[in-house]
Design goal:
The chain is α/β, with parallel strands linked by helices. Helices cover 47% and strands 11% of the residues. The longest helix has 27 residues. It is elongated and about 95 Å long.
């Protein structure tokens, strides 16, 4: 033991133990733990096994403690010169990662750490190692994930913003006795959509599929002010499904003077059947169409995302009826949650 760490007085050992307990820096605390274990009589092999570190690390820390005492345990990287991962570097890296490689002259459409190292060197003049880039990405909260596919709106930016502004002003200045809802349809498939899940090393979970797919469709409306839900089900995604929802909205909001429906440009919303039904409602239901391909402006889309995440993705239901019962249970739970929130706000 004398060749690994020197013998120290009991008071010095207590001081090292006390400083280890008060230490908040992970790396320094790990080095203190190595020394404490060695001073307690454990061998280098035992210390490495207990702490889960390499034996060479134990010997290196012991040598620094033997030659310099506690000072040898301190992080010596501050002597390396100017810190590379400063706030400016991290801020620039954040903007680069938010963009696309093509914007910086790359032909590859996805980022790699090596590409980020070279791009940041061109942007800032600072060169870092790939491992350092990994730390920098963690510092800015970057993660690897699946991008969301999207289609560009064919309208000009001015026309798109004008339509969105008009709808936003309607919702913010809704006349007394009027109601506004966000409307959309969603497909429910018996063959489950496969999504990410946690798995242990060496495992790939199975998602059993019935083989013969079945489909059901929901048309839903979410109150823009309260989050209250109204929905109908059908076996076809047709005009009849949408008209059925409009009829249920009339019954649900029987006291409303006008029901404003914010929705997308799907063809069943423009069909002759729909126009005929609207004419029979005597102006009590007014449709407000969003610009094409603007799902982020339709707040009920988030509800459908939650529905897929909590019910349909990777589901293990053997029948459509079992799956639909889970869907209904989810929607009823969300409806009750919105109702309780409205009651709390009114109290």
């Amino acid at each position: 033991m004398d060749g690994i760490v020197p013998k120290v007085r009991f008071a010095d050992k207590r001081r090292v133990l006390d400083r280890m307990r008060r230490c908040r820096e992970a790396g320094l605390k790990g080095r203190y733990l190595i020394v404490v274990n060695l001073l307690s009589g454990r061998s280098a092999k035992q210390t490495a096994e207990v702490l889960g570190v390499g034996r060479s690390t134990v010997y290196r820390v012991a040598r620094r403690f033997r030659e310099q005492g506690e000072v040898g345990l301190l992080d010596r990287r501050e002597d390396n010169g100017q810190v590379k991962l400063d706030e400016r570097y991290l801020s620039d890296l954040h903007e680069v990662v938010r963009g696309h490689p093509e914007q910086y002259g790359w032909s590859r459409p996805t980022w790699t750490r090596e590409m980020l190292v070279r791009t940041m060197r061109a942007q800032t003049g600072v060169t870092v190692h790939v491992a350092t880039m990994s730390r920098a990405l963690r510092r800015i909260g970057a993660r690897r994930g699946r991008p969301r596919p999207s289609v560009r709106c064919p309208w000009s930016q001015r026309a798109r913003n004008r339509r969105l502004r008009r709808i936003r002003e309607l919702l913010e200045t809704l006349p007394k006795g009027h109601v506004a809802v966000y409307e959309d349809e969603v497909d429910i498939h018996l063959n489950p959509k496969v999504g990410w899940d946690w798995m242990v090393r060496g495992q790939q979970k199975d998602v059993p599929t019935p083989g013969q797919n079945e489909k059901r469709y929901l048309a839903g409306a979410m109150n823009a002010a309260t989050g209250e839900l109204v929905w109908v089900e059908g076996t076809r995604k047709a005009s009849d499904l949408f008209v059925q929802l409009l009829g249920k909205l009339r019954r649900t909001y029987a006291e409303a003077k006008v029901i404003h429906v914010v929705l997308d440009n799907y063809r069943i919303h423009h069909s002759r059947i729909t126009r005929t039904a609207l004419a029979s409602f005597d102006g009590r239901i007014v449709l407000h169409f969003l610009p094409p391909y603007c799902p982020q402006a339709n707040k009920i889309e988030r509800l459908w995302e939650d529905l897929h995440a909590e019910v349909t993705r990777n589901h293990r239901c053997g029948s459509m009826e079992a799956l639909m019962e889970n869907v209904r249970r989810f929607l009823r739970r969300r409806a009750r949650s919105a109702q309780r929130r409205t009651q709390r706000q009114a109290a």
